[in-house]
Amino acid sequence: MKLNQATDYAFRMVLYLASMPEGTKMTGAALAENQHIPERFLLKIMRSLTAAGIMKSYRGVDGGFALQRHPSEITLFDIIEAVEGQTELQRCLHDMSSCTRECGGMCAIYGAFSDIQHQLAERLKAINFEGLAEQERTFHANK
Amino acid sequence: MKLNQATDYAFRMVLYLASMPEGTKMTGAALAENQHIPERFLLKIMRSLTAAGIMKSYRGVDGGFALQRHPSEITLFDIIEAVEGQTELQRCLHDMSSCTRECGGMCAIYGAFSDIQHQLAERLKAINFEGLAEQERTFHANK
DNA sequence: CAATAATTAACCGAAAAAGTATAGTTTAAT
DNA sequence: ATTAAACTATACTTTTTCGGTTAATTATTG
Predict the structure, then answer these.
(1) Is B60 left (phi over 0), alpha (psi -120 to 50) or beta?
(2) Domains parsed from chain B with CATH numbers
(3) Which positions in strand D are less than 7 Å from the protein's CB atoms?
(4) pTM of the model
(5) Nucleotide D7, nearest residue via CA and C1'
(6) For residue B61, which of B3, B14, B88, B138 sits 20 to 30 Å off, Cα-Cα?
């Protein structure tokens, strides 16, 4: 039931840029070093984030990455969806045919997880990176 | 972020016994056939459930498995914990040293997931198998 | 003792996760 | 135009987890 490592890296990447002045652009290498993420792997994750419209990439000399949207418009849910493809806990919520229990969807477990899943998604959508960056600042102020 | 197959099988196994008259005892083979679960794999999952005090096992002739507690005392959370060991979404919630972002726990992401995790756990603990079995019955009544 | 059924521990193949490599493209600056 | 700095695309390798199986063992009933 864990998120992958790539997703956690993506959280950090976005959080860091969200903590910088708006529009800050950084190279993959710099961000990787700063956040202790393997550089090539970071680049790979970046592709998912740019494809999802979360990051913007600049090629060539003086290229790098910047946030494509305002941090307040990027949620935890967005990142998970971009990196993992979907956010479901139970496989049958995502793909009914994955279940071998021939119940035709008349399943109390399915029902329970539909609810839980929905609430979880709402919670994840309620948390955006403007808020997270703000919190991060207060941590650093108290250090 | 998915639960694994074993956990889903465990849900079914417990739900089925919870739907039967209290104290019903069944062999692994019978339960496996009934719920379309590979038999040997079911047996393996059963060990986690018995170790967790959810199932009771009887060896030898006329042996089998039965629920060890009343269905109302078995929750979704219990099953996940028994089969997967822990229910955390973020690895750092379970093992702080798993994070390479040297922030000493002063992390907005960590904070956000602590909350979400806690709420998720509460939701999972709120759903027990007496209720699920009840729901299952109404499905069958309407069929 | 014989038959039955769970237990234990080891094992295995496949798939997914995590990370790396290589060969391009694009771009700014010289 | 060249060059060097950066991302892109694809493909590859390695490690871990998942899903499941085997085989020998132990416990129970009759």
Answers:
(1) left
(2) 5-87+128-141 (1.10.10.10)
(3) 4-11, 17-23, 26-30
(4) 0.94
(5) A59
(6) B14
